[in-house]
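Cross-posted from the bioinformatics board.
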Amino acid sequence: MLRKLLIFPLLLGLWGCPGGLNVQPVHAPIVIDNEAAAAKAFRLTRNAIDESYAILIATNRVIESNVSTGIWTKAQGQSHLNQSKKFRKSVDEAENALLLGNINDAKVRAAAIKALVLRLQIEVAQAARGE
Amino acid sequence: MAKDKGVAKLLDAGIAAYLANIERGVIVAEVRQWELAGKTPEEMTSLLRAMAQESEAKAQKAIDDAPD
């Protein structure tokens, strides 16, 4: 009798296993969703980093052109270029955070620096128009 | 004469601003080419970073070479 009492919970435990396995399909889509969300965040952050680099390249080319054609003084060109160099280092930091897997950190950094880089491009374009 | 020079400078500035807008499009087109050539996203970011550093160096040289 005692033996049967001891075996019963053991059998219950074994039967519990398939029940436990049944839980998995409920959790599985959540894991996939999280992975999909992480992959999306990773992709969007990389896009923001790439766009920031592209804007900085365009800005630097305008600085080079405006200084070499005499539209800007050395001081004007250097002031804009210093900003551009500072921002590029921030984009590098966002990229490093992404490569280290700190997606949230990289996402925040990339969004912030992209806004600054866009503002710099507008400033440089306005200065080129003499505004 | 001085006025003509001022107008010419403004025209140059207008062209420079116009070029600034299309410059970005040129870079985006270049990135698309890399994509078609089978570059990975990591390689493309790395190429863009290198181009950003190179454009900084060229702009710095233009500033250094410009008359005071």
